[in-house]
Amino acid sequence: MLVDDKLTMSQQCALIAKNANGILACIKKSVVSQLWEVLLPLYSALVRLHLEYCVQFWTPLFKKGEKLLETVQWRAMKMIRGLEHLSYEERLRELGLFSQKKRKLRGDPINLKAGCQEDGAKLFSIVPSNRTRGNRHKLKHKKFQLNVRKHFFTWRVTEHRNRLPRGVRESASLEILKT
């Protein structure tokens, strides 16, 4: 991971985008068929893997980094033949994909439920209260002096998890949370 002295991940985003674009170029040169049945599994297995590896840690802090990563997915969607007349958002909807930003927002609570069950007590504190309008088990994170920490996983996931409806938040299975 590349982190600079201000805890920004701009260099990491540039490196990830460069690697993902290189893999995307290899796919474009080596695969003859440009149908979605062929390219979408290759994109999901080879390119998106790089875009989302450890994204809970190095998530882009600035819109420039988000746009850089979104451009990789935009290039991949542009390669698919038969969807040229659709806009980027319509292509994503047609293929059943999400934008990178939406995947991150969706993935944070999923990763909290799936991966942080045993370590969650170290990262968060649960505030039991009857004054929270239906959310009796609210997660609370520590307040930070540095403004950059608001992009950390613990801060992001707390805000989004507390806004989820009770049925989703207290779901027994990961599949219910995903849907």
Mean pLDDT, rounded to whole units? 77
**For the CA atoms, what is the radius of gyration?**
19 Å
Distance between the termini: 31 Å
Shape: globular
> Reading side by side through the largest sheet, how are the strands ordered?
1-2
The class by helix and strand makeup works out as mainly alpha
Largest sheet, strands/sense/barrel: 2 strands, antiparallel
User: How many alpha or pi helices?
Assistant: 10
Strand elements, count: 2
The portion of residues assigned to helices is 55-70%
Whole-number tally of structural domains = 2
- The run of helices and strands is HHHHHHHEEHHH
Which stretches of 5+ consecutive residues score pLDDT under 50?
Answer: none
Q: What percentage of amino acids are in beta strands?
A: under 5%
Molecular structure report:
With 179 residues, the chain is mainly alpha-helical. The chain has 2 domains: 10-97, no CATH class; 107-178, no CATH class. Helices cover 60% and strands 4% of the residues. It contains 10 helices and 2 strands, in the order H-H-H-H-H-H-H-E-E-H-H-H. The protein has helices at residues 10-30, 36-52, 55-58, 63-79, 88-95, 100-115, 120-123, 153-163, 166-169, 174-178, and strands spanning 125-128, 137-140. The protein has a two-stranded antiparallel ribbon with strand order 1-2. It starts with 9 loop residues before the first helix and ends with a helix. The model has no long low-confidence stretch (mean pLDDT 77).
